[in-house]
Amino acid sequence: MGSPDRGEGQVPAATRALAILRVLARAPGPLPAGALARELGLPRSTVYHLLTAMIDQGFVTHLPEVRRYGLGVAAFEVGSAYSRQEPLQRLSRLVLSRLVDAVGHTAHLGVLHGREVLYLIEERAPGRPPLVTDVGVRLPSELTASGRAMLAALPQAQVRALFPGREAFAPAPFNAAPAEKAGYGEGPPAPSSLPELRRVLMTVRRAGYAVENDAVTPGFSSVAVAVLDHNGYPVAAVAVTYPGGTVSDHERLVGSVQAAAAALERRVHGGGRQPGRT
User: Fold this and answer.
1) How many angstroms separate the CA atoms of 233 and 26, rounded?
2) Which DSSP string do the residues of 33-94 spell out, in sequence order?
3) What is the distance between the alpha carbons of residues 71 and 194, in angstroms, rounded to a whole number?
4) Domains of the chain, with CATH numbers?
5) Which helix (H) or strand (E) holds 258?
6) Which has the closest alpha carbon to 141: 199, 203, 197?
């Protein structure tokens, strides 16, 4: 049986190994050891030691011809297992059910998939009609409240990579609310260029939530809040969709969606404190 000191000494190594995996997962391709050391603020010798152990376990692969390191087969297996087990859906169902009980309108959970929002769960409120945001449906992220909430949490460089030109933007199927009327129950016009999208996302960041009105389904509005991981990256968005003109207390609705997103963050983080929240 190991001593307590030995156990405590293993924690930093495990944390650093996981940090390497996160950096490699975010990178567009394999990285040299020096880049990993700079990114993590670690001595290069420490990074080489960790990489060697991770290669032995299959989580990292070495590309000697270019002197770079990438994710290994074991990392792929973990990612595939995550998809099979659907943990995000399992963690979200109770949160969405409670949100529907609180607001009386249909709630849904979406994730970013390229430039689109992929809807994973729809918790329909009693007596409410089915929506286009059914499970498995994909919609242009810039048109939806869920997509705008998640795009607003991404680095600007990543948003620019997703929307390099006007051809990347989907035409709005319906006329969105004029910008001068944008408020709790209204949404900004559907963006058709990167500058327009940046203005929309700036409004979302300031408000702490995203809105959409008539841009997806005529007569319906949505409010959405991003769910962030440990690094502040948007893993999903919680949203509520309701018929226009049926919500009198928009502040209460927004607060309920924000509370649901915070509750899901706590579950995603295993009960730990979320970044940027109190």
Assistant:
1) 10
2) HHHHHHHHT--HHHHHHHHHHHHHTTSEEEETTTTEEEE-HHHHHHHHHHHHH-HHHHHHHH
3) 32
4) 4-78 (1.10.10.10), 86-268 (3.30.450.40)
5) helix 250-268
6) 197
pTM for the model stands at 0.68
What tokens appear for 87 in the block? 């943990």
- For 36-59, write each residue's pLDDT tens digit: 999 888 999 999 999 999 999 999
Identify the CA nearest to 207 among candidates 164, 161, 257, 159: 257
Q: Return the SS3 of 7.
A: helix
**Which residues fall within 8 angstroms of residue 28, CB to CB, at 6 or more apart?**
none
d(C-alpha 149, C-alpha 200), whole Å: 10
DSSP calls for 78-89: HHHHHHHH-HHH
Identify whether the C-beta of residue 260 lies closer than 8 Å to the C-beta of residue 99.
yes
* Residue 179 DSSP symbol: G
Sheet holding 220-228, edge to edge: 138-140, 116-123, 106-113, 234-243, 220-228, 210-213
CA distances from 85 to 78, 88, 186, 202, 272 (A): 11, 9, 37, 35, 22
Ordered per-residue pLDDT tens for the chain, 278 residues: 343 444 444 447 888 898 899 889 888 889 999 999 998 889 999 999 999 999 999 999 999 888 999 998 888 777 666 555 457 888 899 999 999 999 999 999 999 888 899 999 999 998 887 787 777 888 999 999 999 999 999 988 889 988 999 899 987 554 344 333 333 444 566 888 999 999 999 999 999 999 998 778 888 899 999 999 887 889 999 999 998 777 888 999 999 999 999 999 998 887 544 444 43
